[in-house]
Structures are given as structure tokens and as C-alpha cells.
């Protein structure tokens, strides 16, 4: 078996084991811990921590630990959340939710970075387009990963299915189910009774064991990987620049529009796991049906993920995005109109199936799109992706106990429309000015801190030492090296101090044009701005 494929499979099955546990628990939080909104509050706290983590941790951890160990360490937070459910309370679920959230952003950023590097490396090896191989790898990953929902929910349904038979759901309760649910709690009914504590412990024991196996699989079998575009890098980027890289990438106007994709992804996933499972399934059928219904979502999501990974090289991503948008738009409108009833059992499974068809587009194509458009800043790009997706989850779970379901559906409808307009705009820009992939073997990229799209070829060297608040210039030496930055700049004399200053300052200020991009500095240039190098010179 090819090493690249083997590593993709190891990552995929590691995530399968981990999210078999977490996915099952997430689907049950709003139903198991409905008292005082503990379940949805824990989920909202969790994704709030993901949001904060996305701002700070992914680039730092990935550069410090590498992708492999970032994945392994981050998985420990998910294990802590499973353990916290054994004694579920405000004092256990909230802290462990924070731990999980802090690990989630580095986990996903490292996974996306790993697959993107692996795909581009293999593509160069066999002479294929990098984006096609990356799409295929994400398709394989999400085929296996999305099946975690099948196993996690199947386990929960089989365990909770041992609960004694329930009585028929009264008609007066059915009236308040679905889009009409405004969380105006009626008296507890048989359909919303908690399973016995013994059954809950059994389920949590299975989930915890699955999480332990996931960590061991990654730690033992996953090979470390190095980005081929940093082979020449001798020193890591400064701490502060790594810390701010996530925010700095937002200067790219494409990313400013594309953040709506992960934001909507979080909103629609939050609706399915928080609202559909509680207001449609648990309300009308009972908690024992939650797992079976979510299996339908996970199955279609997994199969479509594999399909989209294969066909995207023939159809292009635009057609797939249209398919996802139309499918989810139709589902949202239908959910607004449908009144769930126990005699319409099949319909409860149709909606998660359609949701999976659309979600597979968001999962596979969003990740591949970010990997292709922001290949030079993969860690920061995927950190942004998880940040905005986490914000979507926070919003979805945050307003869960305050808004009626039909209001949440209208919000989804509006955000989906805006998202597709923003995505279409970026595709239009890409059609006019396609993103150029990094060339094989490219090892040097000098990037000015202000990241301006221009070139400087003839800055005049100076026989003068100048000290500015933006950087320090050393002159009249055969070699000048910026401390802390792997930049090697040749110098030579001489101009008079006044001539040097005037020429130097004028040309340096010319750099400060408000144009986003990358500046390639000539080897003999003496930049006013501090620079860093992504490879040796």
C-alpha cells in the first residue's frame, strides 16, 4: 500500500474512533440533559472554547509539535469530555467542554494541514494536479469519518433500546413539535424520560474506550510529515507572527467572504444535532429513535463524501456547491411546513438523509477549497475555518433555548443565501485571476510583514546604520543578518547619508500601497520593514 494512502487511512480511522464517541454524545446532549438547558449550554461553551482556540492555538501547536502530535494531544480533550459525562453536572460538563473546545481547533487544523501536504506531495510525485489529489484524500477521509455517526448513533440506540416500552405520544404534545416548538415545556412525558443511569454508564464506557483507541492509533501508526515548502526553513517564525497569522490572513478579501462557508456549516450542523434531534425526533418519537435517525444522516454524508471526492475533478466544485445549496434550501423550507407525527415515521429519516447530501458538500469542498486557495498559509487558513465554524456552532447552541424552531430555520435560510452569494463572488475572482500553486521544490519566499503585492528590484544599498520603529538596518558589512529572522541580505557601500536616506525612505514608502499579497524582495535590497524568510537563501 502506498505510504500516503496508509497515512490517510490512519488519520481517517483515528477520527472514526474518536467521533464515534463524541458524535453520539453530541446528538444526545440536548435530550439527555434538558434540565435548565445544561446540554445545549455545554455545547455552546464547547464551541465558544473552539472559537478562542482557533484564534491562538493551531499555528503554534502545529509548528511546535507537528501535525501528528497535535492531533494526538488534542484528542485527549475529547476523552476528558466523555469522562465528564459520567458525573454530568454544571461542574463537570462545563470544564470538560472547555477542554474539548481548546483541543478541537488544533485537531482539525492539523488534520486538514496533514491531508493537504500529503495530497500535494503525492500529486507532485505522480504528476497530477494537487487540488485533485487533495479532493480525493478529503473524500476518503470523510467517507470513513462520517460513518462514525453511524456507529456512534447505532450504539446509543441499541443501548437505550433496552428501555421499557413507552406509551403512545399524546396529540397535544405533537402539536408543539417541529417548527412550532418554542421550548414552552409541557409536563414530562414518557417520550422524554431519561434512560436508567445504568444504561447511561454502559454507553459512556463504550464511548470512552473508543476514544482511548483513537489516541493510541494516531500515536503508534501515523507517520510525522514535513511540509515540502518549508524544507529550507532554518528558524521558526517569531512567536508573535505565528500567533497573529490567523488574523493576518483575514486581510485577504477572498477569506473575508469565504468565512461565511464555515459559519453556515456550523449553524446547519448545530441545528441538526441540537434542534432536529430534540424538537422533531425526541418530541414525537422518543430519545431511543435519535440514534437511528442520525444514522441515516451519517450514512448519506459518508457515501456522498466519497462520491464528491471522486467526481469533483470532472464536475468542478461549483456544481457540487449548487447541489448542496439547493438540497439544503429545499429541506429548510420543507421543515418549516412539516408537522411531525408518529404515523409519518419514514419522513423522520428523509430529512437527515437530505441533510447529509448537503453537509457532505460543505465538509469535503470547503476543506479542499481552503487548502487550494490558501496553500501558502495552510495552518492559518484552516485555523480560520475552524474559528468561523465554531462561531456558527456557538450561535446555533447559544440561541437554542431562546428562539422558536421556525425562527432558527429562517436564520438558516438567510445565511445560506448570503453564503452562496459570497462564494459565487470568490469563484468569479478566481476565474479572472486563478491562484497559482506553489512550484515543486520552491524553498524561498520572502514575505514583508505588511504583505504587499509588488516587487522591488533596485533598492539602493547604503553606507549608513538607520534605526526605525519598524525595523533596523545594518550597512557597510559583507553580510547582514536580521536576528530572529532567517533573512540574509548582501550589502555594499557607499552613498552619502543624505542620499541613502532619501532614496531608501522614498522607495521603502512606495511599498506601503494598500494592495494585499506577497512581496518578493531583491537579494540586494535593504528593506525598511522587517522581513522573514520561508526558506534559506
TrEMBL record:
Gene Ontology cellular component list: membrane
Family: Belongs to the unc-93 family.
Keyword Transmembrane among UniProt keywords: yes
Stored InterPro entries: Ion_channel_UNC-93, MFS_trans_sf, UNC-93_regulatory
Broad class of where this protein is predominantly found: membrane
Keywords, alphabetical: Glycoprotein, Membrane, Transmembrane, Transmembrane helix
Classification via Pfam families: UNC-93 (PF05978)
Sections of the chain in a coiled coil: none
Membrane topology classification: Multi-pass membrane protein
Transmembrane segment boundaries: 39-57, 69-91, 97-117, 137-160, 199-222, 255-272, 318-338, 344-362, 383-403
Name by which UniProt lists this protein: Protein unc-93 homolog A
Localisation per UniProt entry: Membrane
